Amino acid sequence: MREIITNVATNKKPVWTKKDLLGLEYLSREEIELILHTAKSFKEVTTRQIKKVPALRGKTVVNLFYEPSTRTRTSFELAAKRLSADVINIATESSSIKKGETLIDTGRNIEALKIDIIVVRHNASGAPNILAKAVRSSVVNAGDGRHEHPTQALLDMFTLKEKLGNLEGRKVSIIGDIKHSRVCRSNIWGLTKLGVHVTVCAPELLIPEGIEKMGVSTTSNINEALDGADAINVLRMQFERDSALAFPSKGEYFREYGITEDRLKKCKKNIIVMHPGPINRGVEMSSEVADGTNSVILEQVTNGIAVRMAVLYLVATAKR
Question: Of 231, 160, 157, 170, which Cα lies nearest the Cα of 196?
C-alpha cells in the first residue's frame, strides 16, 4: 500500500478535500484525473494473488440501495473489502424504510452506529445531496434518479484512457436513451472536462431539450454518430419508461439504432464499444458486437472495482 500512496502523492495532483462524491458536475478536471490516477494504482492490487490492502482497515462502509442493483452494489462491496473495510448491506425492502422512515432519519440512525461512508442509490434525483448535508459521514452517489451515476462514468473514462491514452480531442458518441440516463449525464460532465468531443444520438423524443448547453453535439442519425468516433457508449433503452413512445417496437429500434457488425465495418477499425449494463441483446446491440473484439464491456466491470476503491479511499482520507 505504501507505494500506492507514494505514487499518488508524487504525481503533483491536487489533494482530495471533498467529504463526498455526489456527481462529476461538481468536480474539476484535476479532481477527476486524481481519481483516475488513484484507480490505476489500485487496479494493480486486483491482479495480486491476495487482492487486499489495509488502506481502510477499521473503517465501515454501508451500502444503502433504494433501487435494485447487481453490478454496482457488488462492485462497491468488493472495493470496500479489498481496502479491508467492514461492509454492511442494507436491503430497503426489509428495513425500517418500508415503515415510512425518511432518508435523513435512516442516514442519521446509520451514522449513530459509528460508520464512516454511506454509498447510496436512490430513485429520486438529488437524494445523495440531501443526505450528505444531513450527516457527517462521507456520502458516495451510486446513482440517483435521472441525475448522475458518477462512479459509472469514472470507470468508463478509466477504461477509455487504458485503451486510448490521452483523451484530449477524442470523439465519443453516446447512443440510446439519453433522456432517462444518469450514466449519460455523468459521462458528459466528465468527458467534456477531459477535452473529449461528445455526441449524443437518439430518436428526437429521447434527446432532452437544451442538452447542447452541456457542451455536446446532438443527432438522431446513427451514421453521423458513428462517423469518426473513437468510442461509442451504448445505453440501455428503458422501455419501462416513456421511451416506448419513441419506438414502440424493440425490433424497430434495433433496425434503426442497434449496433451491428455491419454498422461497425463502416467505423474506425479499432472503435471501442461500451455499455454500462445490463445489455438488452438484440435491442441496443447484437450479441456478435457485445462479445466481439471491439467490446470492452467486461473490462468496464473489472475496472469498476479499482475506480470505486479509489473513490472510497479518497473520501475516507480527505484533507478537510
Answer: 170
150 contacts 20 by C-beta, under 8 angstroms: no
Question: Per the structure block, which three cell numbers stand in for 231?
Answer: 468510442
Do 203 and 275 sit in the same domain of this protein?
yes
Distance CA 50, CA 34 (A): 25
Looking at the fold, whether 131 and 211 belong to one and the same domain comes out as: no
Distance between CA atoms of 226 and 260, rounded to whole angstroms? Answer: 12
Residue 107 in grid coordinates:
442516514
C-alpha–C-alpha distance, residues 105 and 128, integer Å: 13
| Stronger pLDDT, 242 or 20, i.e. the higher one | 20
The total number of structural domains in the chain stands at 2
**Domain span including residue 267:** 150-298
Taking the complete model, does pTM exceed 0.85, yes or no? yes
Cell of 320: 478537510
CB 290 within 8 A of CB 261: no
- Cα separation of 294 and 272, whole Å? 5
Please say whether the beta carbons of 26 and 141 come within 8 A: no
